Amino acid sequence: MKVIMEPAREIPVAVETDVIVLGAGPAGFSAAVCAAREGVRVLLLEGSGDLGGTATMGLMSHWIGRTKGGFYEEILDRSTESSDNPGLDETFGGSARQIINPEKLKNVMAELLAESGAKLRLSTRACEPVMEGDTIRGIFAESKSGREAFLADVIIDATGDGDIAAKAGVPFSMGRETDGKMQPASMLFKLGGVDYERAVFPGRFEDETPVPAGTLQHLAKEQLKAPLGHVLLVRSTLPGVVTCNMTNVPDVDGTDAAALTDATLVCRRQMEEIVAFLRRYAPGYENCYLMSAASGIGIRETRHFHGQYVLTEQDILEAREFPDRVVTNAHFNFDIHNMSGAGLDETGVTASFPQRKGYSIPYRCLLPQRVKRLLLAGRDISGTHMAHSNYRVMPICANLGQAAGTAAALSIRQGVTPDQLDVKDLQEALRGRGVLI
User: Fold this and answer.
1) 436 Cβ contact partners less than 8 Å away, ≥ 6 residues apart
2) What angle (nearest 5°) sits at the alpha carbon of residue 112, between those of residues 107 and 118?
3) Cα–Cα distance between 223 and 319 in angstroms, integer?
4) Where are the domains of the chain?
5) How far apart are CA 391 and CA 332, in angstroms?
6) Does the pLDDT value for residue 144 go beyond 70?
7) Which residues contact 427 (CB under 8 A, 6 or more apart)?
8) Contact 386/180 with Cβ under 8 angstroms?
9) Segment 88-95 mean pLDDT
10) What is the pLDDT of residue 348?
11) CATH code given to domain 14-178+301-432
């Protein structure tokens, strides 16, 4: 590869603070609010132009999965549109309360952030860590303001892909342990013009949903071009509007810009085919139309970082209660999308998932190997491919953010690094904030 040497230059330090959180999705947003509530100075950096990540700009239909207790429930309390919209599967606590109005959620997040005292910087992408040996001291970021440095005592990487953790030297693996394959990418979109009185809403891969021409899932496999072939349709908070989760692009490396570009264009082409299919076969969708699409491709899986503990699928199936648990009552399934086509992977389990008790996540999964003063939050914590397919959902990520933000604040107040923090102090603080430790 041809290279060019960039001349050395002085980089201005834009901010020096206590905690910097990278990424304003459910995990990063929660980390920032919860850290600020503990009385430390917090800056939330987000590369895009708004708050919420997948929950808002990604047009996610609803808070899939659930937890009990913690900051996630406060988000729901503040953002719920209404309680009279039926139609969500209740296997894992699904209710109308979890349906997302993206624009309202953006505003609620902005309000919660302002109330906490945390500062926000949008359109600012973290690109390199500031390191002193094995200790992270801040990040370099690029924006319309140029290249700047942001320094803090603790950094929380909630970028999903763990971009800064990777560049800081935290070891990781990509995708599935056996071959490195990652779950396919998707782009959600909204359909308008749906007749709610007659419409069908298959919300799981196993929902066959009888229609005049057969069953909708079978028809999708038969009529849509591969890798399309499944139907997932969820009610929204707006009349006649449905969230469609049917685009599908396997073999996408979510850490590669060229791959993301190609996947985005593929999804755009797939939308027209999906709309035509639904108009023809799905009752109530005869006059539907593409209303809006997510502002970016949705990536389910990339890096799995190596932490002080690696959460496994067996931990989840056994509902282990770790002595250093900081997230509890986490409920979901092994939601693994087909690596090569549509539908559920052969290792995925949704409707028949056997564990209904919920499980816990230990603090050690948030503590990366090799790099000090860094915490992980969200889908980039330490876990296996199978375990990741469960904890990657937004309610669990929000409470992972709460744990990371609270840990960062306590470590600063006590004058220790996050890995030196007594987990009992952290658990006591989380208990006081509604986490059912």
Assistant:
1) 68, 69, 70, 328, 329
2) 115
3) 41
4) 14-178+301-432, 189-293
5) 7
6) yes
7) 324, 325, 326, 437
8) no
9) 51
10) 86
11) 3.50.50.60
